[in-house]
């Protein structure tokens, strides 16, 4: 499921967002950085609101720089106090598929003033993603993929699920071709180093959320001497395989759903209070959806099936501020109207009111399928589903099916599940939340331990990622690190 920092509503896994050492090969393109080509300066133009915009060209294949190119959109907001400017601050909001351009435009409103004063805020859309050209393209309609039954009961249903995953993977290959072998994070890290050079920065200052933590870690492994400061918030563990990644998220979202239901049970004002037993009420909704998709709304043409239930419930679990709306949507579903949950599901998969889809879902599969080593044997995911019937029966049980397109992908992963140490890099700040459903806290602990210079900063509480979420302790420690290179004491916890 998608891994992205969200501000209002957004997706989940994308955990997937989710990672690795560019010096360790799986199969696929060699991630060795090699000699850096000459990088032309960027031609910025005013694009309103105090921002400057540009495009940045990078080679599709860094080992054949005179061939095809990707064009990456850029946005920059210059430092408010030029005399105190430190350099550029690059950001990646996660996904993969999140727009760094869009995030930079929105986040400048809530960034600490010290960062706005001292840095040029720079957002970019990575190769194949968001506003870059070309972008990963698979299908016009994601409905058939989302509508697959994630918990098949017999051989015929299992065959239909596998056939649907095969069809999606084949469609991606048919439309995007060999570009799919050049969209891994190993290539994006090299793009980011070219961008650093073009911006005139001797060393990189960077914030990566969710999937963006993997990009930052891969960059540090390839270019440790070019790191100034990296904040990796909502970390992915580079040592997890594709199936372990899915299991981690399944348990993470199950745990966050349990926290939501417990919170709702304790508050009579919760719309899904259900006489103090929202667990039973949720189970009844899930059973009803699995028996026959709910109309959404009654009398309409759309329905809520198990796939839409997965995304509709998971999406608001990213942020506790959305729990009251999840309660309202579940109360509607309990009354036979799936429209509230379907609206959340649509936001997750970037479906517009006119029935068209954005590219973020396809980008997620395009990148994670070559970043993570997903076992090809479908029995692995069937066995995981069986395990989750006990460990995560309410929502996590649906996740193994979402990995099948990656298991059937036409292009191999470029790396094994090797740890990232980034020997020689300066201190790197890894931020983790104890209640993060999409990038579970143990992943942050693991990444901080793998990095030779990793420093772990913990937030106690629910929700995905921690910086700019209203926690003063996290925000101050992160800002002090970015500005003054002052790291908090190892193991600092913010409540």
From TrEMBL:
PANTHER family: 2-SUCCINYL-6-HYDROXY-2,4-CYCLOHEXADIENE-1-CARBOXYLATE SYNTHASE, TRIPEPTIDYL AMINOPEPTIDASE
Entry similarity comment: Belongs to the peptidase S33 family.
GO molecular-function term, one example from the UniProt record: hydrolase activity
Domain AB hydrolase-1: 89-467
Record-given protein name: Alpha/beta hydrolase
Keywords from the UniProt entry: Hydrolase, Signal
Signal sequence extent: 1-26
Classification via InterPro entries: AB_hydrolase_1, AB_hydrolase_fold, Serine_prot/Carboxylest_S33
Chain coiled-coil ranges: none
Provenance organism: Polyangium fumosum
Pfam families registered for this protein in UniProt: Abhydrolase_1
């Amino acid at each position: 499921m998608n891994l992205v920092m969200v501000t209002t509503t957004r997706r989940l896994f994308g955990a997937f967002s989710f990672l690795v050492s560019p010096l360790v090969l799986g199969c696929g393109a060699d991630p060795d950085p090699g000699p850096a080509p000459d990088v032309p300066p960027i031609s910025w133009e005013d694009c309103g609101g105090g921002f400057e915009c540009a495009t940045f060209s990078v080679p599709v294949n860094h080992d054949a720089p005179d061939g095809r190119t990707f064009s990456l959109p850029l946005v920059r907001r210059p430092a408010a106090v030029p005399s105190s400017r430190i350099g550029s601050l690059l950001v990646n909001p996660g996904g993969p598929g999140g727009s760094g351009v869009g995030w930079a435009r929105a986040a400048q409103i809530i960034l600490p003033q010290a960062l706005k004063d001292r840095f040029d805020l720079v957002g970019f859309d990575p190769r194949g993603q968001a506003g870059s050209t070309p972008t990963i393209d698979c299908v016009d309609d994601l409905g058939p993929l989302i509508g697959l039954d994630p918990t098949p009961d017999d051989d015929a249903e299992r065959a239909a699920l596998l056939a649907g995953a095969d069809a999606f993977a084949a469609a991606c290959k048919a439309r995007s071709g060999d570009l799919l072998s050049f969209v891994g994070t190993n290539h994006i890290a090299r793009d980011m180093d070219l961008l650093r050079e073009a911006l005139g920065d001797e060393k990189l200052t960077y914030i990566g959320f969710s999937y963006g933590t993997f990009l930052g870690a891969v960059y540090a492994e390839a270019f440790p001497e070019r790191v100034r400061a990296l904040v990796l918030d909502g970390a992915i563990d580079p040592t997890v395989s594709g199936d372990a990644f899915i299991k981690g998220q399944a348990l993470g979202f199950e745990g966050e759903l349990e926290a939501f239901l417990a919170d709702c049970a304790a508050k009579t004002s919760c719309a899904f209070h259900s006489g103090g037993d929202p667990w039973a009420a949720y189970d009844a909704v899930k059973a009803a959806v699995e028996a026959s998709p709910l109309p959404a709304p009654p009398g309409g043409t759309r329905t809520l099936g198990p796939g839409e239930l997965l995304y509709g419930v998971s999406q608001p679990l990213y942020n506790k501020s959305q729990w009251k709306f999840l309660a309202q949507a579940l109360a509607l579903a309990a009354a036979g109207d799936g429209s509230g949950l379907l609206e959340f599901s649509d936001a997750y998969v970037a479906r517009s009111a006119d029935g068209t889809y954005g590219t973020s879902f396809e980008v997620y599969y395009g990148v994670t399928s070559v970043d993570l080593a997903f076992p090809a044997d479908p029995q692995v995911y069937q066995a995981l589903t069986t395990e989750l019937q006990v460990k995560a029966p309410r929502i996590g049980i649906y996740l193994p099916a979402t990995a099948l397109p990656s298991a059937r992908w036409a292009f191999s992963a470029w790396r094994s599940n090797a740890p990232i140490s980034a020997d020689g890099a300066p201190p790197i700040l890894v931020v983790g939340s104890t209640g993060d459903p999409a990038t579970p806290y143990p992943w942050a602990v693991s990444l901080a331990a793998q990095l030779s210079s990793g420093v772990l900063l913990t937030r106690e509480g629910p929700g995905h990622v921690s910086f700019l979420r209203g926690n003063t302790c996290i925000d101050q420690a992160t800002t002090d690190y970015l500005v003054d290179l002052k790291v908090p004491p190892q193991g600092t916890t913010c409540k």
